[in-house]
Amino acid sequence: MGEDLASESDLLSMINEYLRFAEFEETARVFEKELKRKGKPALRSAGHSRRDSSAIDDFLSSFNDGDYKVFSELWAKNIPPEIRDFDPVAQKLEFYLQIHFTIYPLKFPVGSHDKGELESRITHFKHYLETRGAALSQTTEFLPFYALPFVPNPTVHPSFQELFQDSWMPELREKLEKFLSVILKASNTPRLLTLYVSFLSIQQMQLHLTEAERKSAIHMRRFAKLQADHHSLIGVTAELVDSLEATVRGKMISPEYLQGVCMRLFSGHMRQSAAQSVDFTRPGTVSHCLHRSRPKEVPLLPSLDYEKLKKDLVNGSDQLKALLLQALRWRLTRSLHGEQRDTVLQAFISNDVLERYSSKQKTVLHLMKSKNEIVRQYMSRLINAFASLCGGRMYLSQMPSLLRFLLDCLKTEEKESVTRENVLGALQKLSLRRAQQSAMIRDGLIGWLVKELHDSDCLSDYTLEYAISLLMNLCLRTQGNRYTSMEEILRCYSKEENPELNRQIEFIIKQLNSADIPEHEPESDDEEDDDDDDEEDVMEADLDKEEVLQPQPKELSGESLLTTEYLGIMTNMVKMKRRSYPPSTRSIDEPLQRPVTPSSHKNTM
């Protein structure tokens, strides 16, 4: 019974603590009155979870007085062990604080006891250097201070002149105050909120664990299959070697025996019924089947004169610009998935076809601002094709001005233009990268998407699906899910005939209604933890839909235009290492946990 009362008291105390923290003062007072009226257990003190300015005042007072004993007690009591022992900022600050208290009697002498006090502090500092301070002994910044206890008069030693300047102590005090304000504020987090955040973290970890277990099971099945094939191959090889040895000794091998061995050899690559119908005893049959099972050689496309091509993209006629943009896009979309497409993309990037590294005032990228609508459309199609590939997204993300061009185009193009559809598709694919997500959120793209989706009945299926998917990707970030007024709007877009779209909308609403957890996503982390590497490269068929550009009579287009007018030195005939593209294994009913692209569920090229 006593344990139950204690637990109830803890729970009620946490509720009251949260109400006070969130400044629901009136609610907290009513809550406390009702607890007393109902005879509930007395509320427990928040203890170490609540801090106020008096703690900081005590720290600063002992710092100013040079009272290292009081300060040490406050440090041990108020600074969590995980911060004291492992946080680099805390360790560095503690080192300088130890120096401050050691040299304090030299700065502020108060009587004949100074010498004894100084010796006591030096002994204390030596002990610190040998224990907690030993971790910084290999750091160049702190190395000179390990000699401080052994210098007879540090005030005149050149290595320690900085310590005795008038500005050193105020600067250290300011650093201490800033550190304490952050640490003690974090410690003020109500226990109820801490428990809830922990619960959410556990839920997220469970989802990740479930996904990891699912992937592990898939890989284990693949491994078991490979292992079985390996053992089968070893057995067949041993039998064939035995047969060869028997043949050398003059013993004949029966056709039935050869048929059985070959059926075992090809059973993993052919259906059993098909393997049984093949006459492996017929000369040449086995070698033919082996050759057919080998991967086919994929021809690589001819190299191009990219300098001439880029020059014409910038200075040529609008018709030529559009034809070249179309031809480059077709090279990506119509190349074979795998080595051939990899080689095309790598050639485009290594030759900087969009002039990312150009210092010229007018570059290929500026075609997004062309006065000719067809040029803008075909430029946006090409960028969308680049964005469909992981390597292309990485290349595009290195162009600081691209995002601005795309957002400007998104807001100025006609509502249902093909140009705007492709720009939206490119933005959605770029949102797989964290830095681009952050930039889109900062530029107010969430607000634009919400406004655009108000009139969803007037949007094409492509625009609606990519707009919803882009919004979902942005809402996965803490910065994005602060827009909590969108639930009613989003529910208007659910369509019975599109369960995939409905599932994404429900996920966005769930993200929007999640806890408003303070974000710890420093800008420097935007290049890390991208979801891009997990996304399968997909070229959706929509990239080449509704071609409005038609060549004039006797005018070259596509690959003919490139290989006739822009053929370069054959530099890309050296084979590249083919990147492995594992098939997407995500179930269509599995909840989305990371940014995705709708084209994963579309017909692809």
SSE topology:
Elements: H1 2-21, H2 25-37, H3 53-65, H4 68-78, H5 81-86, H6 88-107, H7 114-130, H8 168-187, H9 191-248, H10 255-266, H11 272-277, H12 285-293, H13 306-315, H14 318-333, H15 339-350, H16 373-387, H17 390-396, H18 402-412, H19 418-430, H20 434-442, H21 445-453, H22 461-475, H23 487-491, H24 499-512, H25 558-565
Helix pairs in contact: 3-4, 3-8, 6-7, 6-8, 9-10, 13-14, 14-16, 14-25, 16-17, 16-19, 18-19, 19-22, 21-22, 22-24
Key words describing this protein structure:
605 residues, mainly alpha, 25 helices, extended
Q: Would you identify the regions where 5 or more consecutive residues have pLDDT less than 50?
A: 47-51, 515-528, 571-594
Could you report the average pLDDT, rounded to the nearest whole number?
Answer: 78
Supply Rg. 35 Å
The helix count comes to 25
Please provide the ordered H/E string of secondary-structure elements. HHHHHHHHHHHHHHHHHHHHHHHHH
Number of strands: 0
Secondary structure class reads: mainly alpha
Strand content: under 5%
How many strands, which pairing sense, and closed or not: the largest β-sheet? none
Distance between the termini: 68 Å
Helicity range: 55-70%
Given the C-alpha coordinates, what overall shape results?
extended
